[in-house]
Structure prediction request, 172 residues.
Amino acid sequence: MPSQSKPPSGGDVMTSDGAEASGRSAPAATTSPPATPAADVAAPQGAVAPGTSAPSRVTPTDVADIVRGTGAGGAPTLQPPRLRAGGAATEETLGAVTGTWRTNQYVDATWSIEETRNAWLLLRDVGWRKVFNGRDGAFAALLFLAAQARQTGRPCSMREEPDGMIYEIYLW
Prediction:
């Protein structure tokens, strides 16, 4: 009959093989991921095989660069109207090759359903437009802005791509 293990009590520690070891301390935590044996990795030199990537350590300099925004991309392309300098980008000058900038749009309603990332906005004089659903964070941020615009009755500017989805919202 197989032995049944009981859950560890106050000072007991479970070992990695599931055995109980009273009075022994837990193994020390490591700061680097375990090494992957070379035989298990079948990837070209310089490439990382699927499922074998590991987190890398971020230095204080890297964090400072991220905070200062000196890293790649991610900065807004528009500033609030009252803060724009002469010659700064406006909604009209940002007309993307494939996207359409809609300015002074009012969100009259929002709609969602119990499905993953499926929500729509009713834009006054335009109709229903789907919210970009590529990433959870972007989806939530766009919905928060649209809901704020709806709640406050403020106009906003937004970029709609040919697929009919809203990818950016600027609400002042």
